[in-house]
C-alpha cells in the first residue's frame, strides 16, 4: 500500500474540521477557486468523467461536481471520506466517494476517466512515482491529468514549513515533511516516465500582507502541472 499511516492519521484526526473555512483547512478553501478555474479552463469538465485522487473531505471534488462533472473521489482516510459524504447532504451535489488506493482503482478502471486530478497529495505518499503511474493509467488517451505539490528548496522550506506552520500558524505543525517535497524537474521526469506529456507548469503564490493567493510564474513554493496522456 503506497500510503504513510502517520500521514493518514494526521488528516483523519482533523477530518471533522475539513469544511470549516476558518480551520486548519482554510488555505484549501482559499486556493480551491483558483485550482477549479484552472482545471476547468483547460479541460472543460462539464459532462466529463473526473476522478480526484486523494480527495480528502471533498472540497475540490464537490466543486467540480457543481460545475457539471461526473466525479469520483478517492482517498484512504475513512474519516475524511465520511465527512465528504456527509457534506453532500448539505450541498446537494453528487460525488462517488471510494475508500481505495490510486493504484487499486487504476487496476480496476484503466482508461476510464477524461480528467484526473491529484492535488496536494504527492508530498504525502512514500512513492509519488507510483501514484503518478496510477493517474496516468486511469485517464483516457488524450485526457488531462492535473498535479499540484510543493517545490523543494530553501525558499519553500522557509515559507511552506517555517512560515505557514510555525510563524503564521496557517497549517498545523508537522503538516509537511520537507524531504518529501518534489522539484518540478523531478515531477516532470515521473510524468514522462508514466507516459504523460507536460503541457503547462504554473506557480501558486501567497501574499501574507493582502492574504490573497494567485497563479503566476513563481513556482518556487507551490506549483501546479497540467499533463496529457499520449493519444
TrEMBL record:
<keyword id="KW-0808">Transferase</keyword>
<dbReference type="InterPro" id="IPR010233">
    <property type="entry name" value="UbiG_MeTrfase"/>
</dbReference>
<dbReference type="InterPro" id="IPR029063">
    <property type="entry name" value="SAM-dependent_MTases_sf"/>
</dbReference>
<comment type="pathway">
    <text>Cofactor biosynthesis; ubiquinone biosynthesis.</text>
</comment>
<keyword id="KW-0489">Methyltransferase</keyword>
<feature type="binding site">
    <location>
        <position position="75"/>
    </location>
    <ligand>
        <name>S-adenosyl-L-methionine</name>
    </ligand>
</feature>
<comment type="similarity">
    <text>Belongs to the methyltransferase superfamily. UbiG/COQ3 family.</text>
</comment>
<dbReference type="Pfam" id="PF13489">
    <property type="entry name" value="Methyltransf_23"/>
</dbReference>
<keyword id="KW-0831">Ubiquinone biosynthesis</keyword>
<comment type="function">
    <text>O-methyltransferase that catalyzes the 2 O-methylation steps in the ubiquinone biosynthetic pathway.</text>
</comment>
<feature type="binding site">
    <location>
        <position position="35"/>
    </location>
    <ligand>
        <name>S-adenosyl-L-methionine</name>
    </ligand>
</feature>
<feature type="binding site">
    <location>
        <position position="119"/>
    </location>
    <ligand>
        <name>S-adenosyl-L-methionine</name>
    </ligand>
</feature>
<keyword id="KW-0949">S-adenosyl-L-methionine</keyword>
<keyword id="KW-0830">Ubiquinone</keyword>
<feature type="binding site">
    <location>
        <position position="54"/>
    </location>
    <ligand>
        <name>S-adenosyl-L-methionine</name>
    </ligand>
</feature>
<protein>
    <recommendedName>
        <fullName>Ubiquinone biosynthesis O-methyltransferase</fullName>
        <ecNumber>2.1.1.222</ecNumber>
        <ecNumber>2.1.1.64</ecNumber>
    </recommendedName>
</protein>
Amino acid at each position: 500500500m503506497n500510503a504513510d499511516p502517520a500521514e493518514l492519521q494526521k488528516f483523519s484526526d482533523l477530518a471533522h474540521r475539513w469544511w470549516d473555512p476558518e480551520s486548519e483547512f482554510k488555505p484549501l478553501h482559499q486556493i480551491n477557486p483558483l485550482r477549479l478555474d484552472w482545471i476547468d479552463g483547460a479541460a472543460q469538465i462539464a459532462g466529463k468523467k473526473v476522478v480526484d485522487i486523494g480527495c480528502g473531505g471533498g472540497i475540490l471534488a464537490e466543486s467540480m461536481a457543481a460545475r457539471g462533472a461526473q466525479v469520483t473521489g478517492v482517498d484512504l482516510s475513512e474519516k475524511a471520506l465520511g465527512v465528504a459524504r456527509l457534506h453532500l447532504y448539505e450541498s446537494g451535489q453528487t460525488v462517488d466517494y471510494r475508500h481505495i488506493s490510486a493504484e487499486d482503482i487504476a487496476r480496476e478502471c484503466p482508461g476510464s476517466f477524461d480528467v484526473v486530478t491529484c492535488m496536494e497529495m504527492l508530498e504525502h505518499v512514500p512513492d509519488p512515482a507510483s501514484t503518478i503511474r496510477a493517474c496516468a493509467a486511469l485517464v483516457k488517451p488524450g485526457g488531462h491529468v492535473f498535479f499540484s505539490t510543493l517545490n523543494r528548496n530553501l525558499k519553500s522550506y522557509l515559507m511552506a514549513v517555517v512560515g505557514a506552520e510555525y510563524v503564521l500558524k496557517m497549517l498545523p505543525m508537522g503538516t509537511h515533511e520537507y524531504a518529501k517535497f518534489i522539484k518540478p524537474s523531478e515531477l516532470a521526469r515521473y510524468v514522462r516516465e508514466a507516459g504523460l506529456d507536460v503541457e503547462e507548469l504554473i506557480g501558486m503564490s501567497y501574499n501574507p500582507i493582502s492574504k490573497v493567493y494567485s497563479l503566476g510564474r513563481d513556482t518556487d513554493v507551490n506549483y501546479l502541472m497540467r499533463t496529457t496522456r499520449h493519444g
